[in-house]
Amino acid sequence: MAVELNELRDQIDEVDKQMIELLVRRLSLVEKVGEVKSEHGLPIYAPDREAAMLASRRQEAEKRGIPPQLIEDILRRTMRESYASEKDSGFKCLNPSLRPVVIVGGNGQLGSLFGRMFTLSGYEVKVLGSKDWDNADELLHDAGLVVVTVPIHLTANVIDKLNRLPDDCILCDLTSIKSKPLEQMLKVHSGPVVGLHPMFGPDVPSLAKQVIVYCDGRGNEEYQWLLKQFGIWGASLCNIDAKEHDHGMTLIQALRHFTSFAYGLHLSRENPNIDKLLQLSSPIYRLELAMVGRLFAQDPNLYADIILSSEENIEMIKRFHTSFGEAINVLEGHDKAGFVESFEKVSDWFGDYSQQFMNESQNLLKQANDAIHRG
């Protein structure tokens, strides 16, 4: 039996080696695709092409008796690496006559990411860091685009200092709140203004499929090239009113970050053995624990700024506290019927999204399970 098993394993190893050679060939072709896209100004992410290719490969796999989801999982992981490889080929510069791009706070992680992306696109990039304000006039006097990416609590003061930009300079910010910074930029600068919110962190391997929210300010015809440049980088653009954006972020960011903070705080006080919790956890519970723990691996000042950035956030969290208290009352009364009734009302509110989210989460959980090693 051992001999037979080893022979089969040797054959599997040989197939794995062939797969590696095929991946090397595929990534080499992707690199050439990136060069062509860069030359012609095409986005690295083409959703229609990706969808059509995946549908075709799924059909081919099914005909060969291979689970379609298997080939899709393999291809999606391969494509993620491909997008990162295409990025290294650089991007077409859509506004070659643009004067320097000045990134205020460009030594930070997000500022460095955008600086790298502009550099890969052939723009001249300058950085105005916290220690460079003595040279600010020299750095800003001929700026074509100024990008503000500093902590939320510093944003207003920094924007106030940008009151002598060239009239045709585009002024934008990357802050996770939009109403106040946009209002401030419109106040200090008479030229084109746009508020931006990248919905991703600085550790993304590429901008393919990442969302950049933009809130129109003034002179939107003057910064259309910038939005198109983001598209070439692979980003998906979402246009929204600044106030509507901030209300959405109250739920998406502030409330979620706060509940993760509160859960982590409670865990630390209960002081369980995390290794034991992980041993007991199915993939979904492990993933939920990981999302909470992830918060505490990052800068507390960032999350404090996000949560405390508006009174609306605090009021939303207080309303959540009220809902939490009402749910506790149901438990204290051992009111199963009341629990079921509330559950069904929420289920009705989610509607078809419940099943959509079920399907999406199942795919995520499969990937999470694959990454787990249990000795």
Automatic annotation (TrEMBL):
It comes from the Bacteria. Pathway: Metabolic intermediate biosynthesis; prephenate biosynthesis; prephenate from chorismate: step 1/1; Amino-acid biosynthesis; L-tyrosine biosynthesis; (4-hydroxyphenyl)pyruvate from prephenate (NAD(+) route): step 1/1. PROSITE patterns: CHORISMATE_MUT_2, PDH_ADH. Residues 1-90 form the Chorismate mutase domain. It is found in: Cytoplasm. Pfam families: CM_2, PDH_C, PDH_N. Residues 99-361 form the Prephenate/arogenate dehydrogenase domain. GO terms for molecular function: chorismate mutase activity; prephenate dehydrogenase (NAD+) activity. Keywords: Amino-acid biosynthesis, Aromatic amino acid biosynthesis, Cytoplasm, Isomerase, NAD, Oxidoreductase, Tyrosine biosynthesis. The keyword DNA damage does not apply. SMART domains: CM_2 (SM00830). This is T-protein. The gene is tyrA.
